[in-house]
Amino acid sequence: MSATKIIHSIPSDPLTGAISVPVYQTSTFIQEAPGINKGFDYARSNNPTRKVLEDVVAQLENGHSGFAFATGLAAIDSVLKLLSAGDEIVAVDDIYGGAYRLFTHVYEKLGIKVNYVDATEVENVANAVSKKTKLVWIESPTNPTLKISDIEAISKVAKSVNALLVVDNTFASPISQKPIDLGADIVIHSGTKYIGGHSDLVAGLVATKTAELSEKIKFIQNASGGILGPWDCFLTIRGIETLDIRYKKQCENAFKVALFLESQDAVSKVHYPGLKTHKNHEIAKKQQNGLFGGIVSFSLKNDTQEAAVKFVTNTEYFKLAESLGGVKSLLCHPAQMTHASIPREIRLNAGINDSLIRLSCGIEDAEDLINDLSEAFKTIENSKEILTY
Predict the structure, then answer these.
(1) Hey, which residues does 90 pair with through a beta bridge?
(2) Which positions are catalytic?
(3) Do 149 and 14 have their domain in common?
(4) Residues 102-156: tens digit of each pLDDT
(5) Is this model's pTM higher than 0.90 or not?
């Protein structure tokens, strides 16, 4: 979907001609008679501002319908509510920490079993699925080691056992990757990240492939009530208008930062799908249309949490904070922040080692970001935490 089509998929207001989508800040709608209305009766069920956003999300992902939720986890939760006790999920091992917490501490208690696998190898997924598998759950790229899974190949595995393929497309964004076109049944986004793009909202988005799935998610959304309010819908729509230009600039910056990090003596490994040395680089190149994302992660040769903390507290432009995808660059230490809820042994087995640092490149000048990182290395180059290895 081109930048032109994205911008003009967002309608002007037919009532007033307003170029921006109005914020319908209302809880209820007047009816002409019981059950006779203008398409809206109560704001939990629908809202004109939210409808615009949901329609645009469906178009972005080439899906049948889109749905907007209060947070990314609320979106994930809505999909998990498709399951029943005794069902099983095959999920990528390097999974978002919040999703792991929800899977493990909420849904496993309700009789849902989750099997975690390294989805970079299709055979691992094929060996893990069974007749009980109802969802195959992948992120590509993953958070935070940016593992790449072959979505098209895994979709065939899921279909072989009549399971739904769910793809968290947050890191790739609809600009670079269209999971439904590759065989996915459901696409999830943390709208907080690239789609919102300005670190000023929290939102979750779901796109469904079929009318049947759309009907089920719509029922869950209305029954559970975790909807996105009209003001946050407006902000998300505003973010979508500049998504194409922002995301491409962030990809450009991230690639330059990744090349810089590869040259640093204190760095042991750089994770970035745009590097030819990255596992499944060619798959990423194909399914992400040559756009590899704005996230880079790297590990230090002195693989300790102390070393990582020393680094992440010595940058100027990269701000230490959770979240990602905004116009301002951020960095975090997953072991103590985004993935702190994952037990250390499981975290290490997934490749998230103690010194791993995640960078979210914004839209600043790449040279300034590289200089910022360079100064951070210089500040700590005499520190034993970094150079004793």
Answers:
(1) 115, 136
(2) 44, 96, 168, 193
(3) yes
(4) 999 999 999 999 999 999 999 999 999 999 999 999 999 999 999 999 999 999 9
(5) yes
The pLDDT, as a whole number, for residue 388 is: 46
Residue 48 CA, distance from chain mean position: 25
State how far the Cα of 327 lies from the Cα of 362, in Å rounded to an integer: 4
pLDDT < 70 positions in the chain: 382-389
C-alpha–C-alpha distance, residues 155 and 147, integer Å? 17
pLDDT at res. 385: 46
Q: How far apart are CA 94 and CA 115, in angstroms?
A: 12
| Assigned token pair, 296 | 């880079």
Going by C-beta distance under 8 Å and a sequence separation of 6 or more, which residues neighbour residue 244? 2, 3, 6, 175
Number of Cα atoms under 13 Å in the Cβ half of residue 300: 28
Query: Which domain CATH number covers 82?
Result: 3.40.640.10
**Of 241, 262, 292, which residue sits at a domain end?**
241
Same domain, 300 and 224: no
216 CB-near residues (< 8 Å, 6+ apart): 82
Number of domains within the chain: 2
Rg (CA), the chain: 21
- What are the helix (H) ranges across the chain? 3-8, 48-60, 72-80, 97-102, 122-128, 151-160, 173-176, 211-224, 230-241, 243-262, 281-287, 305-312, 344-349, 366-380, 384-387
Q: Check whether residue 362 and residue 268 sit in a common domain.
A: yes
Domain finish residue from 199, 226, 241: 241
Q: Which residues pair with 382 in a beta bridge?
A: none
pLDDT single digits (tens) 308-367: 999 999 999 999 999 999 999 999 999 999 888 888 888 888 889 999 999 999 999 999
